[in-house]
């Protein structure tokens, strides 16, 4: 299965005090750089979803695509932007893997696990879970559903990921939550400090 990774960096980072959360350093390295290093070997290509001036991500050498649904419409808007980019630039890749850019310990086998279990279950979509909780922004999405997603967002005002995935056969793939939750996300300054501790303790794998 050929997959393009979409790095979701289009949020407003209110709980972090604004700015680009993905550019905050952990262990001296930007969160985004760590996530790119983990996801790049798993996919055919990577694209960043972010709004505003794309020049601030120039050092990463990746395409930057903004939301096409206005008003900071949430992660589904980022997924849609990624699906549209793949349809135009990488039509050989039928799937997109979405990853939040505030999760520095994202699994190094994320895409393979999602793809394998989705296919085995005969599902249309897949998302990750850990510790009994689903993480729907870490998902596998078929490009063929992009027009249906656009219609749902634009005409119906749909915003919640669960409301969208509930319309299709979804496979939820559980990942071990120890020694650290691989979907630990950095929302607040104290989360950033905790991530630093986990990294220093060597628990991130």
How is the secondary structure organized here?
Layout: E1 3-8, E2 25-26, E3 29-30, H1 31-39, E4 45-49, E5 64-65, H2 75-89, E6 95-100, H3 110-121, E7 125-130, E8 133-142, H4 146-155, H5 161-165, E9 170-175, H6 189-200
Parallel strand pairs: 1-4, 1-6, 4-5, 7-9
Antiparallel strand pairs: 2-3, 6-8, 7-8
Tally of DSSP helical segments:
6
Number of domains: 1
Strand content: 15-25%
Overall residue-averaged pLDDT value: 92
| Biggest beta-sheet profile | 7 strands, mixed
Terminal Cα separation, in Å? Answer: 25 Å
State the CATH class.
Answer: Alpha Beta
**Overall geometric form:** globular
The helix/strand order is EEEHEEHEHEEHHEH
Q: How do the strands of the widest beta sheet line up side by side?
A: 5-4-1-6-8-7-9
CATH fold group: Spore Coat Polysaccharide Biosynthesis Protein SpsA, Chain A
CATH architectural name: Alpha-Beta Complex
Which structural class matches the secondary elements? alpha/beta
The CATH homologous superfamily is named: Spore Coat Polysaccharide Biosynthesis Protein SpsA, Chain A
Uncertain segments of ≥5 residues (pLDDT<50)? none
Radius of gyration: 16 Å
Describe this structure in words.
It contains 6 helices and 9 strands. The chain has 205 residues and is an alpha/beta fold. It has a single domain, classed as Alpha-Beta Complex (Spore Coat Polysaccharide Biosynthesis Protein SpsA, Chain A), CATH 3.90.550.10.
């Amino acid at each position: 299965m050929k997959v393009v990774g979409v790095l979701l960096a289009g949020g407003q980072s209110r709980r972090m005090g604004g700015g680009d959360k993905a550019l905050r350093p952990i262990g001296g390295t930007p969160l985004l750089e760590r996530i790119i290093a983990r996801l790049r070997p798993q996919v055919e290509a990577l694209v960043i979803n972010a709004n505003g001036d794309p020049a601030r991500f120039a050092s990463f050498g990746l395409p930057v695509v903004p939301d096409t649904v206005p008003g900071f419409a949430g992660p589904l808007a980022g997924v849609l932007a990624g699906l549209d980019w793949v349809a135009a630039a990488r039509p050989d890749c039928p799937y997109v893997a979405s990853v939040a850019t505030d999760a520095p310990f994202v699994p190094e086998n994320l895409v393979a696990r999602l793809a394998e279990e989705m296919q085995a279950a005969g599902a249309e979509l897949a998302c990750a879970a850990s510790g009994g909780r689903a993480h729907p922004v870490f998902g596998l999405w078929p490009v063929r559903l992009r027009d249906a997603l656009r219609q749902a967002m634009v005409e119906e005002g749909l915003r919640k990921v669960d409301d969208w995935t509930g319309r299709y056969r979804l496979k939820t793939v559980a990942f071990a939550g120890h020694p650290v939750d691989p979907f630990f996300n950095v929302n607040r300054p104290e989360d950033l400090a905790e991530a630093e501790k986990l990294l220093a303790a060597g628990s991130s794998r």
